[in-house]
């Protein structure tokens, strides 16, 4: 069969790489892809947001299955357009993708389904949000444990974690008045800040059956020790001992199942990957946000460990047959993925810097270098084209061994201004959190 992967990041490279391993697959196309997918698949020069062109390509090339990686085309209705053209596609519809496309929609649904999440308030203009914060926190000196969010998609940057009133008012101003995130800031969510460690629990669901994947842990802040501004993710590892088997079952029962049922009741059934971004608090797991696709960089360590045929899982989801297939098989070894970024990220950065050492890194056992922000220049060189450039991913007998293998490969790769966090997966060494049900 012929498969089309939509997107150009590390997640899409990992998907293309994994799908190409299926004995059922003959060709994998990636639109638009990157320098890495050009090696492991075939790139197609179509932007991921150009839905009519993608539909046309799928028809003309008799694509058997299209897999949508990023959130933007899902929220824009790519799945609906493909379904209307009788094309097989993996991902939620535009209506179901609101779970990620609108934080207001997500919070309201969580509230109605009695899914644990932070308390919140929604405002349609910056003035009312400002009044709420100043009325509740009249002094500049007191602690202000709030998170300010733009309602819509903002490439993972429309969330500001605040500690002071000044932080909160500045965030409201940036979102609502300065329009830093454009139309995403038409509504503003002000919610309580939750304390604890974050974890990611992803699941395939066909709207009836849920197949939960091993828990992972992303590292959102830019710098070691979770310092600095939030990013799209500086690395991830899997499995995360923070979420043990008992807690994972609790998450399925009290978070994933009620969410899927609530979507079905609202006549917006969810089919695809449901990604729960969780805060593991002392009161138990609470939902920070939902994504409606595989996470990036969580996808890379997850697919590195997946031993089952990914095509079978995708097709069973589309055909509502998840209850009929065997549970996915996983490599027992943990995996660690380290993101290498451009100088200046998550702010401004330069593009076009040549990357050296990729072949040397790829030669290290149990390592795969997934490309995120790369392209091939006129001279045939692999060069940087984004903020997050590579996700160097490795397997190891332990998390520490996987980390060592990943960073050994990182040391092989160089370009001007390259940098990464040095502590990806270190939280795992602290051991699992005490079971909150014993409290």
TrEMBL record:
Which top EC class is given?
Answer: ligase
Cofactors that this protein relies on: Mn(2+); Mg(2+)
Q: Which UniProt keywords apply?
A: ATP-binding, Ligase, Manganese, Metal-binding, Nucleotide-binding, Purine biosynthesis
**What is its pathway?**
Purine metabolism; IMP biosynthesis via de novo pathway; N(1)-(5-phospho-D-ribosyl)glycinamide from 5-phospho-alpha-D-ribose 1-diphosphate: step 2/2
* SMART domains, A to Z: GARS_A (SM01209), GARS_C (SM01210)
The protein's annotated catalytic reaction(s) are:
5-phospho-beta-D-ribosylamine + glycine + ATP = N(1)-(5-phospho-beta-D-ribosyl)glycinamide + ADP + phosphate + H(+)
Q: Does the keyword NAD apply?
A: no
- Spell out the PROSITE patterns in the cross-references: ATP_GRASP, GARS
* Listed GO biological process terms: 'de novo' IMP biosynthetic process; purine nucleobase biosynthetic process
Q: What is its EC number?
A: 6.3.4.13
Q: Which family does it belong to?
A: Belongs to the GARS family.
User: NCBIfam families annotated for this entry?
Assistant: purD
Cross-referenced PANTHER family: PHOSPHORIBOSYLAMINE--GLYCINE LIGASE, PHOSPHORIBOSYLAMINE--GLYCINE LIGASE, CHLOROPLASTIC
Which HAMAP family would you find in this protein's record?
GARS
Q: State the protein's name.
A: Phosphoribosylamine--glycine ligase
> What organism is this sequence from?
Pirellula staleyi (strain ATCC 27377 / DSM 6068 / ICPB 4128)
Q: Which gene encodes it?
A: purD
């Amino acid at each position: 069969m012929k498969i089309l992967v939509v997107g150009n990041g590390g997640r899409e490279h990992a998907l293309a790489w994994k799908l190409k391993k299926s004995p059922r697959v003959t060709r994998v196309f990636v639109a638009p892809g990157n320098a890495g997918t050009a090696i492991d698949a075939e790139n197609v020069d179509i932007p991921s947001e150009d839905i009519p062109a993608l539909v046309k390509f799928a028809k003309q090339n008799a694509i058997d299955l299209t897999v949508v990686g990023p959130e933007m085309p899902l929220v824009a209705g790519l799945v609906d357009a493909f379904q209307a053209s009788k094309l097989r596609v993996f991902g939620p519809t535009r209506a179901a993708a609101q779970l990620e496309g609108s934080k207001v929609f997500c919070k309201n649904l969580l509230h109605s389904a009695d899914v644990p999440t932070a308390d919140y308030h929604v405002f349609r203009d910056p003035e009312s949000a400002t009044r709420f914060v100043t009325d509740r926190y009249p002094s500049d000196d007191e602690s202000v444990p709030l998170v300010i969010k733009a309602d819509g998609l903002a490439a993972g940057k429309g969330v500001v974690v605040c500690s002071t009133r000044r932080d909160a008012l500045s965030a409201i101003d940036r979102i609502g008045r300065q329009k830093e995130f454009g139309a995403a800031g038409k509504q503003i969510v002000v919610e309580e800040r939750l304390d604890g460690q974050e974890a990611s629990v992803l699941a395939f669901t066909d709207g009836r059956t849920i197949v939960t994947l091993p828990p992972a842990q992303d590292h959102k802040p830019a710098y070691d020790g979770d310092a600095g501004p939030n990013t799209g993710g500086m690395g991830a590892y899997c499995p995360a001992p923070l979420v043990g088997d008992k807690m994972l079952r609790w998450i399925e029962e009290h978070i994933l199942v009620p969410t899927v049922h609530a979507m079905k009741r609202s006549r917006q059934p969810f089919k695809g990957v449901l990604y729960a971004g969780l805060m593991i608090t002392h009161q138990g797991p609470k939902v920070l946000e939902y994504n409606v696709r595989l996470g990036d960089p969580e996808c890379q360590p997850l697919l590195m460990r997946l031993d089952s045929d990914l095509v079978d899982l995708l097709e069973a989801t589309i055909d509502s047959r998840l209850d009929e297939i065997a549970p996915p098989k996983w490599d027992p070894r943990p995996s660690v993925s380290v993101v290498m970024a451009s100088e200046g990220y998550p702010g401004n950065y330069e593009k076009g810097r040549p990357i050296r050492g990729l072949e040397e890194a790829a030669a290290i056992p149990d390592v795969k270098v997934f490309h995120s922000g790369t392209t091939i220049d006129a001279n045939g060189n692999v060069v940087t084209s984004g903020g997050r450039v590579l996700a160097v991913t490795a397997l190891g007998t332990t998390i520490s061994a996987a980390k060592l293998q990943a960073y050994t490969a990182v040391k092989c790769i160089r370009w001007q201004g390259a940098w990464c966090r040095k502590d990806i997966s270190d939280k795992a060494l602290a051991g699992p959190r005490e079971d909150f049900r014993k409290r």
